Amino acid sequence: MPLEQGRHYLAIPGPSVIPDRVLQAMHRPAPNIYGSELVELTESLVRDLRSIGRTKYDLAIYIANGHGAWEAAIANTHSRGDRVLVLATGHFGFGWAEIARRIGVECHIVDFGRSSDIDVARLDAELAADRERAFRSVLMVHTDTSTGVRNDVAAVRMALDRADHPAILMVDCIASLACDRFEMDAWGVDLMVAGSQKGLMTPPGVAFVYFGPRADRARDRADCVTAYWDWRPRANPVEFYQYFGGTAPTHHLFGLRTALDMIIDEGLENVWVRHERLARAIWAAFDVWGADGPMALNIDRPEKRSCAVTSARVGKPDGKRLRGWLTETLGVTLGIGLGMAEPDDPEGQGFFRIGHMGHVNAHMVLGLLGAIEAGLVALGIPHGRDALAASARICAEGQGR
User: Model pTM greater than 0.90?
Assistant: First the structure.
């Protein structure tokens, strides 16, 4: 008999679990879009979003998903025919490059594979080879949601500085903001994109582009920008509607306000610590399972892994079998092996992903791991024993008497 009745656990890497407080904040009548309530609310959101992005610079808000943030970032900083360097460590680096290509920007992609972070030595060589300084920007993803890798943003900035290269550094933090440590100003990031639906714990539909002075100067010559995507009236509006290029996404704003309040109440540093501890608990279980079976994490080195999403390999077709069994029997949905196709597994059936971002705690993670182990047992997939005990020990660190 299936046991999926009750609250379903959507353990995919975004949209993340939406807190009840956020849902309740959104469950209200529509406000007057010309009243002072929304003006004050939006001003408070901009202030606190800056704080979470660790920047003193500007940001623009768009009614869009992450793809919209990508396009806004490219459109405001580039002209057709410009050349950019894309550092790809998974599906989403290629996705950002495709958006740029379709606008008319030429992309030079350096593919670091699906199980590795950015190799700074290769980056140094690419920058040195660009003797004419043709690259207008360098695009990278902080946490790639497909592979689970976390890239060293500060190291990329240092490579640009060593080369004395003028390219602006553009970073996708859609999966990492408010999950993995990110320091926009301290790390020398010129532009950062994010979305509402992951660490910010709000439904999809609102995107953010943070930009510093070097990125804004690029806006002066950009011929790709159009009226809707132009960030200048959004970042410094004369009239309220300019924040959003039209009608405000009212109920998203109410939800986002509550989500930011939750992050502020916990403390951003504590949020980062919580994500790191829960990620280590998940990795500990996989280490035990993989000691006597095919289970393996996609990123070998723990310091290279995201604290927001984990990508794992169990082999074709068991990744797909496990995902299906968990959804149909226990009411838990894992993420698909997005972008993880292999020659003998063109649909990526041997992979699955776990989202552990935003509104997650120890009992949710331990319950999720227990469900996965039940699936391994039910499907006869070989695995090591005592994985949950290893995870529980990490969750209990420093919590005893």
Answer: yes
